[in-house]
Design a protein that fits this description.
2 copies of one chain form a homodimer. The first copy, chain A, is an alpha/beta fold and 562 residues long. Helix content of chain A is 42%, strand content 18%.
Chain lengths: 562, 562
Amino acid sequence: MTGTGTAQQFVDRHRETLERALSAIRERGYWSAFPESPSPRVYGEGAAEAGKAAYEAHLGRRFELGQAGTVGWVGSERSPYGPELGVRYPKADLDALLASAQAAIPAWRDAGPEVRAAVCVEIVTRINARSFEIANAVMHTSGQAFVMAFQAGGPHAQDRALEAVAYALAEQTRVPATARWEKPQGKRPPQVMVKTFTVVPRGVGLVVGCSTFPTWNSYPGLFASLVTGNAVVVKPHPRAVLPLAITVAIARDVLAEAGFARDLITLVAEEPGERTASGLATRPEVRIVDFTGSTAYGDWLEDNARQAQVYTEKAGVNAVVIDSTDDYAGMLANLAFSLSLYSGQMCTTPQDLLMPRDGIGTELGRKSVDEVAADLGAAVDKLLGADAQAVEVLGAIVSDDVLARLDGADSLGEVVVPSRAVTHPAHPDARVRTPAVVRVSADGSDAYATECFGPVAFLVTTDSTGHSLDVFRRIVGARGALTASVYSTDDKVVAAAREAALDSGVALSENLTAGVYVNQSAAFSDFHATGANPAANACLTDAAYVAGRFRVVQSRRHLPAE
Amino acid sequence: MTGTGTAQQFVDRHRETLERALSAIRERGYWSAFPESPSPRVYGEGAAEAGKAAYEAHLGRRFELGQAGTVGWVGSERSPYGPELGVRYPKADLDALLASAQAAIPAWRDAGPEVRAAVCVEIVTRINARSFEIANAVMHTSGQAFVMAFQAGGPHAQDRALEAVAYALAEQTRVPATARWEKPQGKRPPQVMVKTFTVVPRGVGLVVGCSTFPTWNSYPGLFASLVTGNAVVVKPHPRAVLPLAITVAIARDVLAEAGFARDLITLVAEEPGERTASGLATRPEVRIVDFTGSTAYGDWLEDNARQAQVYTEKAGVNAVVIDSTDDYAGMLANLAFSLSLYSGQMCTTPQDLLMPRDGIGTELGRKSVDEVAADLGAAVDKLLGADAQAVEVLGAIVSDDVLARLDGADSLGEVVVPSRAVTHPAHPDARVRTPAVVRVSADGSDAYATECFGPVAFLVTTDSTGHSLDVFRRIVGARGALTASVYSTDDKVVAAAREAALDSGVALSENLTAGVYVNQSAAFSDFHATGANPAANACLTDAAYVAGRFRVVQSRRHLPAE
């Protein structure tokens, strides 16, 4: 029973972290378990270099996982910064893989929520220790700049994982493991029963990763399913496998050390176009699906994976209602950063800037739409400045689709902030672009009312702020949104925006002018998505996100009255 | 602001009850808020007579509710005990009704979870005060005998309602209403934000009632949706409208007193065959559906009400694994009662008694299948005895379908316990029947492997107890079950049954020989259904049952650093 001893060590080791995480989700103030700074003072001298070397050691080689049902090798990742990765991953026979995953479940179920949570925290902790390796893998699959790949792909994703573990532990332990039921019977002795309540998993959880945030968007579902007793199959996007392969490898090692079967978590890689996710998602063994990606495929999963609980984060149209500001420069700088970060390739990037056509009030007087457009362009230029500086914000364009949308932006309206190509000093093959802003009228073409993923935003002119809010309700109601924001010095406008956001079911940021951006959400404090509008059917991560991943099965028996 | 004052009174009045209910769901020991005894010592002298008179005052009249969109009157209830009820209910124009329901939501949402919970407890408390009236209504729609109609349709249903309110209050208040987020920035001042978290409902919840337990099966979904801020439309079974009409009328009055719109809860009655539920369930305004009834219609709802969160309790095949016992008479008496109660017209009634064909061990020596069958028949006879006594257990047959299944029982196998017709002393038109038991071989006809709702059970002979457990896994896996039980003196067999129950996702009762029956589940202690097998996609009531009925929407804004 070495396994059990190790599992118990994990329980002891991570008790405090879990308790802190549980109080963080109750309070939703600031807390982070994993430092976001890639500084050597935090992660140690040489950590960055060692992580880069570890990343490079994967290139051009087979990524061995020792999974059941390995029948070949696949892989075709190319870095948005240029080179092919050349990593080959196991190709799986799904019958054998799923049979092995299912066989692993009962012992994992019987270990109980506390052991599972501790094992999961150990996994996340070891993932944290390999943040530099994973950051390089995220950078060279998603195209994120290095610091962003480190933060969003590393500690921020790890915090989200721990948050999911905490929510799931809390929900699983709301019901006691046993209860004594004693019903009075008047003058006769009471009826007495002992009841046992066992958390049982749904089965196999499938996690379908995306190409832009392979770890951040996958970890919540992965850990929520695993910690609730399910086995997990990870199906990465064919362009972003390596970060999840490293994740799966770490998890398999920890599970084995703790005495459980490695195949509780497996990787299913594929060549582009194989549609492995569709085959997997509709298998009877698969009872949970977590997906981040397009609305079309998310809808397909919801319609077709009927045997499973399906959690989707899809496309949305994120809007900013601009009414007035008392910090014009701060507002523009904030918007410029939000539009530029990772070339707008975030599900949370603002797309529609809604503004009255007669301009907005500022502390510098009224500003016309033309002035706002020009000043926003200047703010983007100031932020991005020299190429060497720009690429650290912009990263690289992740796919041809994104580039095609950007190239077609001038057909959608009047380009008021043009995109420019940036040459990456270290990676001349990388396609780096600054964001374009296209001016349209709210009542003209409705190109702005559907998602245009990537570095294209719309400056949408309206009759008034009231009209802007109507447009906001219409597009969020129809297409959904991951984020929304408002700029106004008028409390009544802010209140109306809050009401519109509540009615539309989208999170609102108000008057962001400093170092917090609408496209960033902090684990343990900000919820990501709401599940209350068409952009996502769930929130990452809350109680509803975890409560349906397991069930409670009871047994009961009489005790003789005492 | 009278309304607000009254709502606050409800909050003060019910604080203690809610706290007790919250601790009950954490502990899951014995607790009940509403006394189950219909004794005058509990409910007061004259309460029974007054409730009967109140029930009779509804007969042959219009049931006025004052709902938006009332365009006519419908109703066709006939008591299983004989007479037509003659009550006429509002016929609704659904466009007008749903528009009014939707318009009522924002103020209800803005009231917050605590006020909503208190208003709901006030509703349940007033329902409790009308338990005798509702008991008569349940008796004369479902066919339950009076005491059962009182208990299951009254206090037990009320306890389930309060349980749902408690779970929903707990889940809604896990997230704080506001949080202060303060992120350190090294030597610079911290970033500080204030965040607001608001519980928002999904929209309109539809509750589709059944004919056998119009209140007990409807209250959990009704109160779970209402207390989470949704409006609720109640669509009763056309044969069992009155208990829910009384419920809706009480709720509307309390909502109005508290300052909210009555149309937050409405009744949609119909003539048989109108298929109003299908029309309602697929309306875009309807975002939650709760259903109890047939597998075919539950599956239809899951497949078609795609815009809604759908909670279904469908048919199942409840099995008893009989291996051995040290209380042969107790086991038989317990089984006889479980099969006879309400003529087996409960979703929790055992259907398949699985037993080795070479008999079972007892404290009186080995008993052959023939002996067990004969002794079970004798136990049924002893329980039911004279007709006047029998009808108080059996109630009346609720529908022609049930009677047809009973009449066809002899075509399914060898009838080893025959059904007999009982004449109701007070209601000669009532169709009252004792249960039939049909002997089949596990490997013969598979009639026993699908639900046969009503007073027909199967004595299924197997090769061994191991074989019985295999059959158990097979039928529960394929058809689902609401209950399961095992009789064995062998700890290894009980452990194997527990494992089979966990794997199949069904609650297990072990060796019930005294006053607790497998078909009874106690609110606040026993979960009803699990959501882990095909008989139901949800458990009534746990956290997962309530957590998806609302979402949390946040807003955030900067505070200057202090």
